[in-house]
Specification:
Layout lengths: L3 E7 L2 E8 L59 H21 L9 H12 L8 H17 L8 H13 L3 H20 L15 H75 L4 H30 L15 H10 L3 E5 L7 H21 L4 E9 L2 E8 L13 H12 L3 E6 L5 E8 L3 H4 L1
Parallel strand pairs: 3-4
Antiparallel strand pairs: 1-2, 2-3, 4-5, 5-7, 6-7
Helix pairs in contact: 1-2, 2-3, 3-4, 3-5, 4-5, 4-6, 5-6, 6-7, 6-9, 9-10
């Protein structure tokens, strides 16, 4: 089993410093015992944050979903039902209105019914050509009024076409068409009535024209209000869709970070222990058995944490069944690193942290130690915990040197650590030390916005 050594930095008080080394680490000067197998730590590859290192979640260039080809987007359907209802209203209403205006206006004939049908029938194309329909209904209605036929619901077709044009965005066509209709009606009622039917008709008053103008303005105002409300609803729907996509992306990244941190650390420990077990299988079966036991424990823990992440996906409305890991499990993490051949010194005691900060701090230490195991030639790391005002300063150092490709900053591990810190309002600084080796420095706030509410 691993040897645990604890020593106080200052007599009788915190912070405390303790060290946990691998099974072959039995000397206080930090050198390995003669029985340590050569190369048992494996041949580390490049750091996870080195440039060009492939990520476990990289996607193929064609990441788009299935699409339907060969078919164009169908245009809007013709509004048959509403057009038929409006036509029936105009014809029936004009028929009854003609009875009350007998002797004052021209009786309805075939030409009148044709104009009514044209004004109403044009509404079939109000979705495809809203501007042209607005002009067409206004012209047909103006021709109907110029012929001296009775007033009635003929203006309903104008109102519907104007409404459709404004909602579709053809506001200028709607305003112009109803403006021309009012101007033409005023010209007929105040001047051209002398030469137009019915014979003997007199001029209209300006009060009547003001009523018509008020009706025109009311129609356009209602249309503009409907357009504004429709645009507002469309913006709200788009914002809800963007928020849903943003939440889905954040959740996807969170799960990717959790799985990466859990699997990268556990598989690194398993890989090192498997190499040690193979090397010791013939010369020291007992040590090989210890390595296999460590592999079993690491794989069991990894499966448990993966199941916990997957359980949150299956039951999104329920609370997690198991508590999230935190710095309280730091001794267990150090023991796992010791099983992979890494001696870790821990200096300081973790303060009380919110659950989110506690999980982020644990994952940052876990990923930093995993990178030391995989990418550093040093078998010794130091973890220091300091409380500086309202922040936790978390520092992980190794003496290096890095093996394989030069360490950079583009790997998933370092990116995940930065995302965790940024989500809490903290920072991550990772890079080579001036005296050699590698350092990861995380500054995490002790309180978050959610805790202050």
């Amino acid at each position: 089993m691993a040897v645990m050594e604890e020593q106080r930095v200052r007599r009788g008080g915190p912070p405390r410093r303790w060290r946990h080394g691998p099974p072959w680490w039995n000397r206080a000067d930090g050198r390995s015992a003669p029985g340590r197998p050569a190369g048992s730590g494996g041949t580390p590859g490049p750091r996870a944050d080195s440039p060009g290192a492939p990520g476990p979640y990289s996607q193929s260039p064609d990441a788009s979903g299935p699409h339907i080809g060969g078919r164009g987007v169908p245009g809007p359907h013709r509004p048959w039902l509403s057009t038929v209802l409006c036509t029936a209203l105009v014809l029936a209403g004009s028929h009854f209105a003609a009875r009350g205006q007998h002797g004052h206006r021209e009786p309805l004939d075939g030409y009148a019914y044709a104009l009514l049908l044209v004004a109403s029938g044009l509404l079939l194309w109000r979705h495809r050509h809203p501007g042209l329909v607005a002009y067409g209904t206004a012209a047909a209605t103006l021709a109907y009024l110029a012929a001296g036929y009775p007033y009635g619901p003929v203006f309903a077709a104008v109102a519907v076409s104007c409404f459709s044009a404004v909602v579709a965005g053809h506001r200028r066509a709607a305003w112009t068409s109803v403006g021309l209709l009012w101007a033409g009606h005023a010209l007929i009622a105040l001047w051209l009535y002398r030469w137009l039917p019915p014979p003997g008709d007199g001029p209209s008053s300006w009060g009547q024209e003001l009523v018509v103008a008020t009706w025109v303005v009311a129609v356009v105002a209602v249309s503009e209000l409907a357009r504004a409300r429709r645009e507002q609803w469309a913006q709200e729907r788009a914002e809800r869709a963007r928020a849903a996509r943003r939440r889905a992306d954040e959740e996807r990244l969170r799960i990717a970070r959790e799985l990466h941190d859990v699997l990268a650390h556990s598989i690194s420990v398993i890989n090192v222990q498997a190499g040690a077990g193979l090397a010791l299988l013939d010369i020291d079966p007992e040590q090989a058995r210890t390595a296999l036991t460590a592999i079993r424990a690491a794989s069991k823990e990894a499966l448990g944490e993966v199941r916990q992440v997957l359980d949150t996906l299956r039951t999104p409305g329920d609370a997690p069944r198991a508590p999230a890991p935190g710095l309280g499990r730091l001794p267990e993490l150090v023991e796992q690193a010791a099983g992979a051949g890494l001696t870790v010194e821990v200096d300081g005691d973790p303060p009380r942290l919110p659950p989110g900060t506690d999980l982020a701090a644990f994952r940052i230490v876990q990923e930093a130690l995993t990178n030391v195991v995989r990418h550093s030639g040093s078998r010794h790391a130091r973890v220091r915990l300091d409380q500086d005002g309202g922040a936790l300063r978390l520092r992980v150092d190794d003496d290096g040197p890095a093996t394989g490709a030069a360490a950079g900053g583009s790997g998933n591990g370092l990116a995940g650590m930065r995302e965790r810190a940024a989500a809490l309002g903290g920072t991550i600084d990772a890079g080579a030390r001036p005296d050699g080796g590698w350092r990861v420095l995380a500054v995490l706030p002790l309180t978050t916005e959610e805790d202050d509410r």
